């Protein structure tokens, strides 16, 4: 941009913000809403709504403001860097404050009106995180006969918490999600216990098949507070990320109860607290936290199909999450049911291990090559180049969050068109081998599939060539039944098998609530994940945000947390702030609590 | 600066660099040396000299170039950011390359000639660290029946190294120094084993007195590669830094042999390797590394005075490094011999623990208040403000390194004058209580004392007020002998004692070589630490660099590493590059190998 153009863009944003500030200050919801275009989206992360909520168009925006403006009292809207304009859209990074907190966000203007607005709470006033200039001193200067050292304090806390004192929050599940949230809560001073059935932090990665590496690149995977170092591999091997999580849990001083099983939980409405029974070191302990977070993983509750004959099959059979890797299957016949990420990874590892492998494709799969996905799909936000261009992980997270789910696919479709063209030969080879491909119902590709249904794709790191080349045999169709030593397809094809792996995905996370709390509560909160896109496995009506994730549910004081490392990192902040506010007795009127349309 | 002034400063530096480049390229040592002022210093860290070496004035500079220019072939001298000028000195950040490596440095010009030049090797060509854009991929795409997972490779390496394969480097001592160097060598791909007698990384901190916190602030303490997070305390409690070191060792994938004792080492001249015998799990293992690094700590080899009657004293007596903390001494009489850091910390902790405490001051001590030291002495380089001003830890390290030892005290004296003035009341109270103060022989204060002798000071975090107020009793003079239950001073004063702590400091690190290798080798390499300032405990002649630290010694293939966290971090790079070059068979002609003037 020329200086003049930059000046006029800055003026446009300043004028809009000034009008917005004035309308908000005057309590003029209608006037504020008029500053938004007919097609417009305001996505709020906690700052106005105490919810994760996207409202669409002036009418919904007005309604949201009518319900929130009185107590939110937003003010101090200003840009934090010079705005930019391209293709008729002006983009600005902004900050603001409310009665109880400070936030920042992102604004897109079209024809002088707001097209998208993201507002996100960063911190609660009076409860800022003790970092940077506010970091703790570590030593208390002077002489004090009652001095307690850091180690004594940590040990006392570990002895007392859950026994003579009660945590404010219990997080069930100590994978990346529970750990990231636990770290946020520790920094916010919210007493928390993380309950994890495995022996060590990171075991939920370590215990998976041995060839597993993260499919997302390092820039996408950072945890809060401590970034992976510059030499960390692009794709973390599972045991390496396991070690990192273990290290992180220790140095972040989390109260992490490993080898502990959550057995039951019920909400004591009268006391306003949960009664959570956990088994630790062979003994039952009852915890009474104010808030309960289920962070057992969206890829945690295996979906194992009921196949006739499974009881007569004499070989090994297990869900992909239980698959130990190829070592014991050299020279054996393996049938892998499924054709998504785990299926491909496991087929390739079994082939490398010397097994005779058949993949059973039951429905079409979306495939993208890893290199292509990194270059075309992710590099603008999460890459070495992005970091060099000043797009920090934190900024990338906010840019991603600024795209409303309703129109996100429009940003995605051109990228996947480009990928399809770039790798045309590759796709042709796959189709020639009989592999059934798709690109999502609207051609929007992998991220939308992930957000809508959390499944239906494979990021190719090499298995596709085995399928295309016939090294891994491909069998399409439905499985009919198992015999003593074979998988029999609906068309009668018999696949001899010493091993059957069910790479058949996972169920909705409210299944965890059914197991731990009750079916009644699971049904009350309803389906978790997806946002009502009315595509496969994500039925309508439109909901606009991920169902039940990181925000209040229909069950008081029950929360779901999880997702990939990016989501665990970014959304743990908003969940932590919601929990902190409740711990501090700050009023948290929820606007637009989601309704439940599906129980699973 | 105005634009015009900035332009003229930039021109001055460019012209100097152009003349310098031309003279160097022409092999004109004399002409190059003429570009330096009569008072001038060229400090080279490995890039020209394969040594840490400061040459002073045109004659020494010419001599150095005559010996190094032919094989170094330096070129590509350029600034990396706009130079600045103040008080008649122009400062520039520069980069350059040599035949085998790339480096950067810092230049100060006075009256058109070089006053100080720092040249530091950053990396060896063809052996760059795999970081950032060169980071490893982590997964090998494609299908490969011989694939070895990250975990399998790590396990194989751990099983083989030191048994069926030999490390290139053995580091004896797994404290902060050994760990930082081990991390550098891992990133440079140099097979290394760290031998540590304690059970866990970090134990050398954990096992010290319980109230200990680092006296240096967090910005000064970062390790290479992974920085402390933003919420890390300013002064790390000892157990917390212990945990950090333990986790760092794990995620940096160091081959760390804990619970292992180095028993003996001898250099096999013929084979060109060390024969190092270590005891691990009760069995002797012989290691044959090409290079041996002693990193057992400059505060590692206790100096315990021989006091008549020590054998008849019936109470507890131990060196400060063995002091367990105050818990068992409540109500007891404690005498702490010494008046430096450990003495003060231990006195304060004993007093807090309810002991009756007397400090024995044998000679004057330099005292600075921690807050004052941070504000006046460190904040320009290592502080939250420095970071905000763009002085990263890496940049601060280089600025510090750019000050030649010969004139460093001149930069320090005004700071300590300021401190003395700021805390005049405090010092008056201390002197009134009979405490004997000093500021170093030339008034240059704490850092110079540390660099010259590694002792003689206390950074006050509270103990001084106990001494000033008489809560901790002060006794001046020399200890004459011990009785069954008392310390008797030279003047006859008897100090009843249940506990005597010898906070009497440490001996020169070549004592480690005497213990492990032989007295002959210890004498051959001579005194370690100090630079010949001709002040107490640092006798002349002038040597210009820290004796034997991080650079070649008179014993082939023997190296000393250590110092505080700042030095462990920064100088581990140059030591690692020297070791890497030798591992790769790169020619490393050492210029100006230090002579030995003192054996201890």
Q: How are the SSEs placed, and which strands pair?
A:
The structure is a homodimer of 600-residue chains.
Chain A: H1 3-25, H2 29-33, E1 36-45, E2 52-56, H3 57-72, E3 75-79, E4 84-86, E5 89-97, E6 101-110, E7 113-124, H4 150-160, E8 169-172, H5 176-187, E9 192-195, H6 203-206, H7 218-221, H8 238-251, E10 256-257, E11 260-268, E12 273-280, E13 283-287, E14 291-294, E15 316-319, E16 333-337, H9 341-352, E17 356-361, E18 366-369, H10 370-378, H11 384-388, H12 393-401, H13 405-422, H14 424-432, H15 445-452, E19 457-460, H16 463-468, E20 473-476, E21 479-482, E22 486-489, E23 494-496, E24 499-502, H17 510-516, H18 519-525, E25 558-560, H19 565-583
Parallel strand pairs in A: 1-7, 8-9, 8-14, 9-10, 14-25, 15-24, 16-17, 16-24, 17-20, 18-19
Antiparallel strand pairs in A: 1-2, 3-5, 4-5, 5-6, 6-7, 11-12, 12-13, 21-22, 22-23
Helix pairs in contact in A: 5-19, 10-13, 17-18
Written account of the structure:
The structure is a homodimer of 600-residue chains. Chain A has 600 residues and is of the alpha/beta class. Chain A contains 19 helices and 25 strands. In chain A, the strands form 6 sheets. In chain A, strands 1, 2, 3, 4, 5, 6 and 7 form a 7-stranded mixed β-sheet that branches. A 5-stranded parallel β-sheet of chain A has the order 10-9-8-14-25, with helices on one face. The mean pLDDT of chain A is 95. At the A-B interface, helix 4, helix 8, helix 9 and helix 16 of A face helix 4, helix 8, helix 9 and helix 16 of B.
């Amino acid at each position: 941009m020329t200086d003049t153009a930059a000046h006029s863009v800055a003026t446009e944003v300043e004028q809009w913000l000034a009008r917005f500030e004035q309308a908000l200050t005057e309590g003029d919801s209608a006037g504020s809403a008029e500053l938004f275009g007919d097609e417009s989206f305001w996505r709020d992360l906690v700052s106005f709504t105490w919810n994760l909520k996207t409202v669409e168009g002036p009418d919904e925006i007005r309604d949201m403001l009518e319900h929130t403006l009185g107590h939110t009292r937003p003010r101090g809207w200003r840009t934090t860097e010079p705005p930019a304009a391209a293709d008729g859209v002006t983009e600005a990074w902004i900050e603001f404050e409310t009665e109880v907190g400070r936030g920042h966000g992102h604004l897109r203007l079209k024809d002088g009106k707001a097209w998208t607005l993201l507002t996100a709470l960063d911190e609660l006033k009076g409860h800022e995180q003790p970092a940077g200039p506010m970091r703790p001193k570590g030593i208390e200067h002077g002489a004090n006969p009652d001095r307690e050292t850091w180690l004594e304090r940590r040990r006392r806390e570990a002895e007392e918490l859950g026994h003579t004192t009660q945590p404010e929050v219990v997080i069930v599940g100590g994978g990346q999600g529970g750990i990231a949230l636990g770290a946020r809560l520790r920094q916010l001073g919210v007493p928390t216990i993380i309950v994890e059935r495995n022996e060590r932090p990171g075991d939920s990665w370590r215990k998976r098949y041995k060839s597993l590496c993260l499919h997302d690149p390092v820039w996408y995977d950072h945890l809060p507070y401590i970034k992976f170092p510059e030499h960390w591999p692009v794709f973390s091997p599972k045991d390496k990320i396991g070690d990192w999580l273990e290290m992180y849990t220790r140095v972040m001083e989390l109260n992490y109860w490993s080898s502990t099983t959550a057995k039951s939980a019920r909400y004591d409405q009268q006391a306003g607290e949960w009664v959570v029974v956990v088994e630790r070191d062979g003994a039952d302990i009852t915890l009474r936290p104010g808030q309960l977070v289920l962070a057992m993983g969206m890829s945690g509750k295996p979906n194992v199909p009921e196949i006739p004959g499974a009881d007569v099959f004499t070989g090994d059979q297990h869900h992909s999450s239980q698959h130990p890797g190829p070592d014991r299957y050299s020279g054996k016949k393996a049938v892998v049911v499924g054709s998504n990420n785990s299926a491909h990874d496991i087929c390739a590892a079994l082939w490398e291990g010397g097994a005779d492998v058949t993949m059973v494709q039951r429905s079409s799969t979306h495939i993208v090559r890893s290199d292509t996905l990194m270059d075309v799909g992710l590099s603008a936000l999460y890459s070495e180049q992005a970091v060099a261009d000043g797009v920090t992980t934190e900024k990338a997270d906010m840019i991603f969050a600024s795209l409303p789910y309703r129109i996100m696919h429009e940003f995605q479709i051109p990228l996947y068109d480009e990928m399809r063209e770039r790798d045309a030969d590759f796709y042709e080879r796959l189709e020639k081998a009989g592999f059934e491909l798709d690109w999502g119902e609207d051609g929007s590709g992998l991220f939308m599939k992930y957000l809508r249904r959390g499944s239906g794709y494979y990021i190719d790191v090499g298995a596709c060539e085995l399928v295309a080349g016939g090294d891994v045999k491909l069998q399409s169709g439905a499985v009919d039944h198992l015999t003593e030593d074979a998988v029999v397809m609906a068309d009668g094809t018999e696949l001899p098998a010493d091993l059957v792996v069910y790479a058949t995905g996972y169920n909705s996370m409210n299944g965890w609530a059914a197991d731990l709390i009750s079916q009644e509560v699971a049904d009350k909160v309803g389906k978790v994940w997806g946002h009502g896109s009315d595509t496969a496995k994500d039925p309508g009506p439109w909901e606009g945000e991920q169902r039940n994730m990181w925000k209040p549910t229909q069950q008081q004081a029950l929360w779901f947390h999880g997702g990939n490392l990016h989501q665990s990192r970014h959304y743990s902040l908003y969940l932590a702030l919601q929990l902190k506010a409740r711990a501090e007795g700050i009023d948290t009127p929820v606007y637009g609590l989601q309704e439940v349309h599906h129980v699973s």
